[in-house]
Amino acid sequence: MLLSIISLVSGFILLIWSADVFTNNGAKIARIFNISPLVIGLLIFGFGTSAPEMLVSGIAAYSGHPEMSVGNAFGSNIFNIGLVLGITALILPIKVEKSVLKKEWVFLILSTLVAGLLLLDKYLSFYDGLILLSLLILFLFYVFKQSKKDSLNGIDDVDSKINNKEKGKTWLLLIVSLVILISSAKLVVWGGTILASIFGVPELIIGLTVVALGTSLPELAVSISSALKKHHEMVIGNIIGSNLFNTLGVLAIPGLISPFKIPAELLSRDYIYILILTFLIVILPFKDKINRIGGFALLFVLGGYLYQLFWF
After folding, report:
1. Are the beta carbons of 212 and 78 closer than 8 angstroms?
2. Residues 6+ apart with CB under 8 A from 193
């Protein structure tokens, strides 16, 4: 038991550190290719901070624990909006561009609805995984197309001129951090699975809470840092991008690797909260900002979800 706890804690710590290094160096690479702050949030930060979820999902599904994979995907989306966006808005009100709500948010809600429709038969099949993956590729195509139109601005902590030596160092750190992400993800899955069996807790609950919270911490760190530096586009881009990768990428993985029957409560409980929180992104902005009251509202919904999860 002690070994599994050590594995879980050390896995979380390594996940947070490696995801931070990964996104920092990803931002430097984005700077080299002249990509906008929103695209950095959607793609570099969105993918970078969702990499732990994707790795945990893949390893869990391959190891014969697909319920943990799906629980991780759903739980991470709930924590990303309820906890990450909620706490960030409490620290500093977040500006929300109307253009984001008209395009990127619309793609997120459509992807969420498609995922719900695919899971109505309570079975995540190989073909469901292919459909979700196809939507992810479509989203990536949109982001790359958007990156050609936008110009980079507003990133203070990344040098505009990076020599060849720095480029090599940046790529090396990116690769090393990715390797550590893979290793730490395996630690989290192993520790979570052992603890679940010891305490008799269903793997779905472990995936929805412990693993989902642990893999959402990178999003929290990146969002708070971006908000404090007034990079509002990155905050919203990070949340929307991360949830898109979770919905289309993380959820697709267990379907492609190990198709299985979806627990009924995943749709009747967890999916409903994802819809509520996703719609709150477009409802809460007052004068184009999610203020501290909005942050409290998001945390309140998250609290209601956790109460229902553990006491009902």
Report:
1. yes
2. 60, 63, 65, 68, 203, 206
Predicted confidence (pLDDT) at residue 159 exceeds the cutoff of 70: no
Q: Look at the block and give the residue holding tokens 């956790």.
A: 306
Q: Quick one: DSSP state of residue 36?
A: -
Instruction: Give strand pairing partners of 289.
Output: 95
149: its two tokens: 């139109």
Beta bridge partners of 182: none
The pTM is what? 0.79
Closest to 8 (Cα-Cα) out of 146, 213, 163: 213
Residue whose structure tokens are 């009251």 = 293
User: What would the pLDDT profile of 81-117 be if each residue is shown by its tens digit?
Assistant: 999 899 999 988 888 888 887 888 999 999 999 999 9
What residues contact 122, with CB distance under 8 A and at least 6 apart?
261, 262, 263, 264, 267
Residue 294 in this model has a pLDDT that exceeds 90: yes
Return d(Cα 212, Cα 54) in angstroms, integer: 11
Q: Confidence class of residue 292 from pLDDT cuts 50, 70 and 90?
A: very high
Residues in Cβ contact with 173 at an 8 Å cutoff, skipping those fewer than 6 apart:
21, 25
**CATH architecture of the domain with range 2-311:** Up-down Bundle (1.20)
Residue type, 206: I
CA angle 38–41–46, rounded 5-degree value: 145
- Alpha-carbon span 165 to 129, nearest angstrom: 40
184-231 tens-digit pLDDT: 777 877 887 787 778 787 777 777 777 777 767 777 777 887 777 777
**Sign of the dihedral defined by the CA atoms of residues 273, 304, 241, 60, in that order:** negative
